[in-house]
Write a structure and sequence with these properties.
Strands 2-1-3-4 form a 4-stranded mixed beta sheet, with helices on one face. Among the domains are: 34 residues; 162 residues, Glutathione S-transferase Yfyf (Class Pi), Chain A, domain 2, CATH 1.20.1050. It is built from 11 helices and 4 strands, in the order H-H-E-H-E-E-E-H-H-H-H-H-H-H-H. With 294 residues, the protein is mainly alpha-helical. The structure holds glutathione. The site of glutathione has 8 residues, from helix 4. Belongs to the FAX family. It comes from Littorina saxatilis. Keywords: Membrane, Transmembrane, Transmembrane helix. InterPro entries: FAX/IsoI-like (IPR026928), Glutathione-S-Trfase_C_sf (IPR036282), Glutathione_S-Trfase (IPR040079), Metaxin_GST (IPR033468), Mito_Protein_Transport_Metaxin (IPR050931), Thioredoxin-like_fold (IPR012336), Thioredoxin-like_sf (IPR036249).
């Protein structure tokens, strides 16, 4: 330390430039690591025919993915009994997001379009038993989950209650994960959340919004097993994807509130997990129980 101080007082400009270069190089390395294999290409590798290839990020610590959209899509594939294979390549879709699918050489971006694509290819409709009015309600709740609760999750997990322990568990192989998340990912997400709007609210206000959303969802679910009745519909996949994150992979006030105030939603998560994810524990990197539920 003393040597650095001496060098600095003898050559301040040179030391500042050298320090800047070290920080910039570290930044570039972390950035490249985070952005590696960025976008999807249509050139298919040697994937089995007639099998959906689900491209996603790696498994999550306490639920099968850190992205609710991957859990949505994989749950759908399981409910619809579609042959699929996971590829945890961390490649982004042509739209720059995770997850996405490829099927016989054709790539589809966005979980909703992936489901529509498979529905058409395989003649599937998990919501066929719903009336038009019920479909409207189911879709509205899906939007509530994906367009509002999702942003609650984003703000609370990555900005307002950044949990470095969860980060370390979420990216166990990334040497610079804490640095990258704290100084790059979190500020980038803060900007996105601000632009979307949720990021302009205080944490207390975000929790308040979450409570209203979850109350509506819980009241509507009532004593039903799934969103619309005794069997799951397509929209349950999206709702489970989002709720799974609040329940298993979030710490802080929203997650505590979820567990304390919404027992019906907790049971719903457990029910979806038990029914469609018998291998849940094997699909997680830390054994599938949230530290917050211990
Ligand atoms: N509407 C998309 C949303 C997917 C999405 O937002 N994925 C996030 C992860 S949770 C993502 O890829 N974020 C990376 C980014 O925006 O650069 C879908 O349903 O697939």
């Amino acid at each position: 330390m003393e040597t650095i101080r001496t060098i600095y007082s003898d050559h301040p400009a040179l030391t500042t430039i050298a320090g800047g270069l070290v920080v910039a190089t570290a930044g570039i390395l972390v950035y490249r690591r985070l952005r590696r294999n960025t976008t999807a290409s249509n050139a298919e590798e040697d994937y089995p025919k007639d099998t959906v290839i689900l491209h996603q990020i790696g498994r999550g610590p306490f639920a099968p993915s850190m992205t609710p959209f991957a859990i949505k899509l994989e749950t759908y594939l399981r409910i619809a009994k579609i042959p699929y294979k996971n590829v945890h390549d961390m490649k982004k879709s042509s739209k720059g997001k995770y997850p996405w699918i490829s099927f016989n050489g054709h790539s589809v971006a966005d979980s909703a379009f992936c489901i529509e694509f498979i529905n058409k290819k395989r003649n599937v409709d998990l919501s066929s038993w719903l009336s038009p009015e019920q479909r409207a309600v189911a879709l509205a709740f899906q939007r509530l989950a994906e367009e509002d609760i999702y942003w609650v999750l984003v703000c609370q997990r990555w900005v307002q209650h950044l949990d470095m322990d969860l980060v370390a568990k979420a990216f166990p192989k990334w040497r610079f994960a804490s640095f990258g998340v704290k100084y790059m990912l979190s500020p980038a997400i803060r900007k996105k959340a601000w632009e979307q709007g949720m990021g302009r609210h205080s944490s207390e206000e975000v929790v308040h919004i979450a409570r209203k959303d979850l109350t509506a969802l819980s009241d509507y679910l009532g004593t039903k097993r799934f969103l619309m009745g005794d069997q799951p519909c397509e929209e349950d996949c999206a709702i489970f994807g989002q709720l799974s994150q609040l329940y298993w992979q979030l710490t802080g006030p929203t997650s505590n509130m979820f567990k304390e105030e919404f027992p019906r939603l907790v049971s719903y998560c457990e029910r979806m997990k038990d029914r469609f994810w018998p291998d849940w524990v094997e699909c997680t990197t830390q054994g599938g129980t949230s530290k917050a539920t211990k």
